[in-house]
Amino acid sequence: MFSSSTFEGNLYNLSEQEPQRAPIGVFDSGVGGLTVLRQIYEQLPNESIIYLGDTARLPYGIRSQEEIIQFTREIIFWMESQGVKMVIMACSTSSALAIETVRSEFKVPILGLILPGAVTAVKAGKRIGVIATPATAKSNAYKLAIQEINSNALCWQVGCPEFVPLIEQNRIDDSYTFEVARSYLEPLLKQEIDTLVYGCTHYPHLSTLLRSLVGESVALVDPGKSVVEACAQELDLLGLKNTYPPLPTRFAVSGSPQQFAQSSVMWLGCTPMVESVNLEHLNINHLSQDNGGLISY
Ligand code: DGL
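Above: the input record for the complex with D-glutamic acid. Below: its predicted structure, written as tokens.
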């Protein structure tokens, strides 16, 4: 078990004395996780948040499982060192490919998008389309989760490699983005889906465009909403729900803070202050898993 807090010592007195006041760590490769952050602001307005965008290594969706596990590990290690009480993976790709591994390596509770999203999808319909990054689609994570909940549900997944770069570049209203979306949705519409799952947290940023393509009869499922509902239940269960006013959200990125501030302003409605973090210096390859949580370099 890795434990950065063992290593960091007694830095986070506030979190230790009043653990419910500690922040929740939320991460994604970029601006996708802001769709989950929006849900947290709506559903859990008292929670303080540390948001990390691993923008230096974006996009995740074309990476190998090994890389995604490694990046996720480095992020959760950093989150623990910041004294978070819980981590929400606001990234479906990490949720699909890394959650089991990192859950076994860290003490902090870690929530992912796949199961909450699948539960909501199965309630919404029986012919379920999932649009996702190539890595998530290839992992079959959503399909397996959906069919485990309801073996009669049909599920089709489409990898959409162009969406994340287009969204990160704020090309939401481009006619090119519309054409790309149409071609990704075509095979799903041919199957007459009744439900479409945003299998990547970037995609709710395209909700207006996607709605115009699928029509009013198809239910749109945002697993970000579902994971925040699950988070609220988990916080209650653990007695960790914050009842005090929250601290301002801290934003941190591994790439350019200026670029993130620019691309997130349209989703946040204001220009955030953004810190820079170096995740790679942790060099998790040098960590030993069988040393009782102590770290060796
Ligand atoms: N927004 C993330 C997801 O939900 C990552 C997308 C990417 O970086 O490819 O999968």
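Notes for the reader.
The chain is about 45% helix and 15% strand.
Residues 3-12, 288-297 have pLDDT under 50 and may be disordered.
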